[in-house]
Amino acid sequence: MTTASMQTLIDSAESARESLAAAQEQLRAVRTRCTTGNGAVTAEVDSHGALCGLWLDESITESDPDGVGALIIEAAHRAAAAANGQRSAIVANCMANIQSFATPVGKVTASVAVRVEGGIEIETASR
Fold it and tell me: How far is CA 75 from the centre of its chain?
């Protein structure tokens, strides 16, 4: 392997590392809020779908406990689904960036395997 090829490989690896670091930061910043149709409950979740905030409108006092529970679950579920969509887009963008950095260098074989918390798995790719 030539010095230029080695530098190209190092540069590609550094670019991939930077892309992963940026994706991690973006994932940490994800917060999604959803409000029920009647406006009584708003839930906020992070990129993993974990509840970060819950707001109850004063009108909620007119609902029975089972109804309140159902509204909270509805808002949290919708927020988690939206966060999942954001998380998927961030991971897909990161993977596309990493693949764009790949440069053929002699007979070097590279593998990429990524596992993201929250159940999203990206298949291993080899070159």
Answer: 19
Query: What is the per-residue pLDDT for 9?
Result: 83
pLDDT of residue 27: 95
Quickly count helices (H) and strands (E) in the chain: 2, 5
**51-56 vs 111-116, strand pairing mode:** unpaired
Mean pLDDT of all residues in the chain? 84
Angle between helices 65-101 and 3-29 (to 10 degrees): 170
Quote the pTM value: 0.71
Gap between the Cα atoms of 2 and 66, Å rounded: 69
Q: What is the DSSP string of 100-111?
A: HH----TT---E
pLDDT at residue 109, as a whole number:
53
Question: Domain boundaries in the chain?
Answer: 8-126
Alpha carbon distance 35, 112 (integer Å): 39
The yes or no reply on domain 8-126 and CATH 3.30.1310.10 is yes
